[in-house]
Design a protein that fits this description.
Elements lengths: L17 H7 L4 H14 L11 H9 L7 H10 L9 H9 L8 H4 L4 H14 L6 E3 H10 L6 H15 L6 E3 H10 L1 H8 L4 H6 L1 H10 L1
Antiparallel strand pairs: 1-2
Helix pairs in contact: 1-2, 8-9, 10-11
């Protein structure tokens, strides 16, 4: 009796079907499949377990697995939705989906669409370094200094002062989620200016994601 050999493709741990992820994100099925090819390369660049470790994430962003960067640590933590120290494929796609080029422009964000809530939460968590549920002056200043943006100390302080002057409506020296959402909804370009410059490294690290989207415009 002949042997029937299985030809079923082996996938990475935590793999989810492209059709499922496409239904839950702005990506098409083809884009999700392309992202899976990128994911496989990233998740096997240092370790071979099919999961993206922090060292691999830093290597993709900075071409240096040993470079310490607060921004990279924060982004990794937010991609790691399960908080298990690695990024699975589903987490990778869902996190990138927040910044898909098809996401609403600033004027649409002001209307508080579902994608606004996702971007708002991501941006708030990015600055809430201590994970206290508040953004404090020191946290905002620290992250701006850690970014690759060329900003003098005076410019950083000016940005922080202006932000807290407008957003801290309760006058307690910190910004809660309610204050942040109200502030961003009144200043929709702010969330783009404060968040997207940090993500330039991510879009450069995943060029086919960007080029594919631009080609379809």
């Amino acid at each position: 009796m002949g042997c029937i050999c299985s030809t079923k493709t082996r996938h990475s741990p935590g793999y989810e079907e492209p059709a499922v992820l496409a239904a839950e994100t702005p990506f098409t099925v083809n884009e999700v499949e392309a992202l899976y090819e990128l994911f496989k390369k990233l998740s096997n660049s240092i370790f071979t377990d099919g999961l993206i470790h922090k060292e691999e994430f830093q290597l993709a962003l900075f071409r240096n697995q040993n470079r310490k960067n607060l921004f990279a640590d924060r982004i990794f933590d937010m991609f790691d939705l399960k908080r298990n120290g690695v990024i699975e494929f589903g987490e990778f796609v869902r996190s990138l989906g927040v910044f898909h080029p098809n996401a609403p422009a600033a004027e649409k964000i002001a209307c508080r669409t579902p994608i606004f809530d996702e971007i708002f939460i991501f941006a708030f968590r990015l600055y809430d370094l201590r994970q206290t549920g508040f953004i404090e002056r020191e946290e905002a200043s620290t992250l701006l200094h850690e970014s690759d943006l060329v900003l003098s100390d005076d410019v950083v302080e000016m940005i922080v002062d202006r932000t807290f002057s407008d957003a801290d409506t309760k006058g307690d020296g910190r910004i809660d989620q309610e204050e942040w959402k109200e502030f961003v909804s009144k200043n929709p370009t702010l969330i783009k200016n404060m968040t997207l410059p940090y993500l330039k490294d991510i879009t450069m690290a995943f060029p086919s994601f960007v080029l594919r989207s631009e080609a379809e415009d």
